[in-house]
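Components:
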Amino acid sequence: MRTSILVIYGDGINCERETARAFETVSAPDQIVTHLMHVNEFLKKPEVLLEHQIFCIPGGFSFGDELRSGKILAEKMRTSMTTVFEKFTKTGGLTLGVCNGFQVLIQLGVFTGIRELRTVTLATNDHGKFLDRWVEVKITKEAEKSPWFKGMTGTLKLPMRHKEGRIVVQDEKAASALHIPLQYLEDVNGAHSRAAGLLDASGQILGLMPHPEAALHSFLNPLAISTEAKEKNAMLVRTLFQNALQFQQAKGTLHT
Amino acid sequence: MNQTLIALPLRHANEHENHFQAFWVRYSGSPISDQEFLNLSSLLSDRVDQDFWINPNAKNLHSLSYSSLQVVSFRPGVTDNPASSFKELLHIHPLLQSRALQVHSGEIYFLKEGAKQAHYNPLIHDSKTYHFPSPNQAELQNKVFSYPSPQEIQVEKIDLRGLNPAQLVDLSKKRFWALSEVEMLVIQNHFHERSVSDVEIEVLAQTWSEHCKHKIFAANIEYEGKTIKSLFKTFIEKPTHDLQEKKKWAISVFKDNAGIVRFHDDFDLCIKVETHNSPSALDPYGGALTGILGVNRDIMGTGLGARPIANTNVLLFGLPNETGPLPKGLLHPMEIFTGVHRGIQDGGNKSGIPTINGAIHFDESFSGKPLVFCGTVGVLPHTIQGIESASKGQVPGDLIVMVGGAVGLDGIHGATSSSLALDHTTPSSMVQIGDPLTQKRVLDFMMEARDQLLYSSVTDNGAGGLSSSVGEMAEQTGGAKVFLHEVPLKYPGLLPWQIFVSESQERMTLAVPKEKIEKLKALADSRGVAASVVGEFTQSGQLEIFYQNELVGNLSLEFLHHGLPKMNLKAKWNGPETRKTWKKVAAKKAALSTIQHTLETLARDPSLASKEKWVRQYDHEVQAGTALKPFEGISPAAPNDSGIIWMGAHGGKGFEGAGVASGLCPDFSLLDGGIMALIAADEAVRNLIVTGIDPDKIALIDNFCWPDPLPGPTNPDAEHKLAQLVRTCEQLSELVKTYEMPLISGKDSMKNDFIGALPSGESVKISVLPTLLVTALGYHPDVRKIVKPHAEAGNHMYLLGLHSSGQYLRYFGATLQKHFDIESAQKLENFNLKATREFYQKFYQATRNTLIASAHDLSEGGLLFAVFESLMLNQVGIKLAVPPEHHLTSFLFNENPGRILVSVKPSQVSAFESHFSVNERIFIGEVNSSATIELKDEKISIAALTHLWRNVI
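Structure:
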């Protein structure tokens, strides 16, 4: 049984091709199917999600990001697919939101309960600017619970490319409810707990600001480190995508 | 319609909460109470960290000790992206879903007593200040929704018969046609039997503009006793056509919207570089944004439509610390820079196209008009369902379909105005703001429609709008009919000619076979893209233009495209010039002192200084293919020489790459345009060569930005400027022939002058230095083996290039001269194109054999500056060995082309030394871990210099 991956595109989403390619890079061609689907079609027929095992919301500037980033796409998804999305996760579906995709998931509220009042958001970086640079993030203890990070320890080096990526929580209570799988080693944007990403309570939904799909090859790494260290990093980043596929392959065809 | 004001506080770090984003929402149907709107707060704002105000009460705010509030909003008709987004958001809610909505956005500032007003650009913004204690609440809340006032729709018949030449010229000036006396006479003669309609003459003015027709490059030029019949044909097209036999990979040159090369087995690359100078002078943000989006559309309109995969930008501004009183009407160079920077950022980032290469250069000659070069590389499959995608296939009977944005009054006369100097009469309708989201939707839609072959041809709408895109496409079929009333408008009231020539953004023109139109429209609809049939291609030989049922224009294509008479011009070179300043006093120059002082002065020169903090605001690596980025490392980061895309990200096999680099050196135009051409083109090429790119697979793109070289009362040295152009073209052509690197695309902008008055009332003219930008696109065989500039301790450093004993006896360069009292030699000696080409081939072999550990080109600041940049990443040092036969200043700072700084691993030294002859290499020292440059009795700290260099602008 091939693992089926749904990647949405259109309306300002930019990173759909490299996101789909990431899974293709780490897998044999006969093991997976990647399906690029336009947002408009997806919102009309969200049940299609249940025919897939992995759901990706790629990076970009959905609907122009003129207001709070990710807001419009999140609100469109909320009205049309909340129930489907809950079912998808309950039956073992994995979700990945990178950068703008993470902003969408944040606005949707999945990290503190999609039907709860939202208590976490992503605000403009404390330095106020869009910044493209590679960062090093630590894989935390919290990550161990997630299928995405199975067997992964140490740090990942990834490019960050955003202006609105500072995780802000409403209060202490909200902070203690967060599941933070990745933390920046350096304070790059003023994020709460230096968090670079979040997991939902099930560990199946992962959102992160830096871009793992752009760090799968050592020759894309501009850091002043040895080729061996770049190679090792690329392999560890690939594990993230492999984990998702292996999780689904081990699970078989539970929810189709 | 009812109306409500919704305000969201904009909370940036370290800013007070006195700044709001405001949306005036007008809606149909029953009134909605403030409370009902408040219930939408979780939809319209972010409950975690954002407040949400409905109809904010100005009186209450007064108690917060503010004394006035300022409302800044877009002028009627200006693209308002936040408003479109807000409208989309409102439409999600059931309460508003089925209502008609109009939204305007703006910003509200609460100001304390004596506080400075927020800055705004009167060309695009309205600003109104309300004073407490009693601002007019109703007025604030009920901001008037206004559009440009509707005009009576009519077509004017203009009778040119009987007008004398002076009257013709006057008419052309008054209407912003930018047509010369000769051109007006030709038009008068053509219309000797009837009057000409405003639609017709506007189409002619657009099509015949310098911007569209490149009249100066087509002119007959008398120079040194000979007549050059077209600079373009002689020096650009001919050498390239002569090379095409050898360079079969140059598959489409000069005919499409971009040049196309075939370096790879499955796909082609195309590249185009444009300028957007005048718009960026008026509204820097909008000018640069539309510059980027515009050149992206050129790529989308190449062949059957290519996908943009990389952007470049080269920017030239006045001095960032300019203190001299600027002429009235000019923005400060730093304001232009920051606005342009924001435009480039949004243009690339929001479109998902990585900005991989560029340069930022400052010189006071760019205070009048900045130069904003925007480039894009695209990828195009060889064939789509068996159809060659590099060609265009419109046939008579195909429908003309406009896709993308609607048409408004923005961008009327862009093409003709950019053919005029800027002055106080420049119309503000030239100013536009782009909408990256609409364009991205168009791109996504087009790629799908292309792969299903739903259209037979495509071109972009740029300068001249529909008149130009349809006019060009009609040439292939032999005619077209256009129905202007079918063109979707942003608001009513546009005159037919305005609809046809408007340059409103984000539009492409497609040729669609009739049997595919329904499918194409359905696809467009499902992707949220507007697509309208606005005409049909014919073979009548005419461009027939209809409005409602009336034929409002009927132009013969022959006259439109070939009726323009050639200009006859004279060129005379006056020899090297000394630098002129538009300021009344020239800056004083210091004497050269220590090497450290010289190097620090260079590091502080804003053109040489680090631009990292600006460039990192561009996304370099979206699409996940950028193998060579602008910088290596983090702290410190050091600059790379070019941008390289791994083609595996775009359907390529293995590890092949495509590199882009640029070269320019306007300062050398003072010496001689020919020298500038050689140095600029060689620098672009060398920036690729150093990375390991194959010199047999490099294509060049030329962009000329010149001060007006046409004679006129305010232009006494026009013949000299034209001669500089001739000399530039001649030498560029020599380089193209000898390096065997074809020019595949190019553009010129010939009116980069500002004419105005200083605050004192004294008149002033600011002309740009003649500037040639050369962009190079090349093939890299393996992105895993890119050679970078950064040296490591233990390696041996060499200066590579063709050296002769006399080379470093005199200073030759432009940078030291700007700061110090030093003269440059006036001729470029010891530079041989043929030998340099052979040297580059040898260098390529050396990179294939992994003999080179690092390589960096020498450019501004010469050898020593290149050494500094190479040592920066690893914070290493060198004890410099200067061969005693050379003059020290010349050896360290000369700016001759053709040279490369390399470092070599000790284990490779003997192989390296047998690969390059002693005439090609000079050993300059061993890289050590001292983090200093040591020479003579001086020791210069790399860390201190890096710190200085990084914190200039």
